[in-house]
């Protein structure tokens, strides 16, 4: 199923509403003037409010890696991230949520 292409300006947060931004992007391809993000790009999470941390449990989200991306759309030999791509945060294993992205370019 097609999904909108993820880019640097997209609104992405961890499950605990900590903002997430890509540490790297693929600058040779842009959508709406913003570079796109590919599967190998790691996200940095800030201000995660993971509730178990305050009770001595697992630490809050700090980074996230993508586990699933586009299957037919590539940039620089890597899978492009889409609105429905899947990720996993470290160290607690929760996913990122994509709240808003550009709505003009899609991929599968």
Order of the strands making up the biggest sheet: 10-7-6-3-2-11
Helix content: under 10%
Strand content: 35-45%
Order of helices and strands: EEEEEEHEEEEEE
Assign an overall shape.
Answer: elongated
Mean pLDDT: 93
Report the C-alpha radius of gyration, rounded: 14 Å
Total DSSP E strands: 12
Taking the sheet with the most strands, its summary is: 6 strands, antiparallel
Amino-to-carboxy terminus distance: 6 Å
CATH fold title: Tumour Suppressor Smad4
Overview of this protein structure:
- The protein has 108 residues and is mostly beta strands.
- It has one domain: Tumour Suppressor Smad4.
- 4% of the residues lie in helices and 41% in strands.
- It has 1 helix and 12 strands.
- The strands form 4 sheets. A 6-stranded antiparallel sheet has the order 10-7-6-3-2-11, with no helix packed on it. Strands 1-12 form a two-stranded antiparallel sheet.
- The longest helix is centred in the middle third of the chain and has 4 residues.
- The radius of gyration is 14 Å and the shape is elongated.
- It starts with a strand and ends with a strand.
Q: What are the main properties of this structure?
A:
12 strands, elongated, 108 residues, Tumour Suppressor Smad4, 6-stranded antiparallel sheet, 1 helix, two-stranded antiparallel sheet, mainly beta, 41% strand
Outline of the structure:
The chain is mainly beta and 108 residues long. Helices cover 4% and strands 41% of the residues.
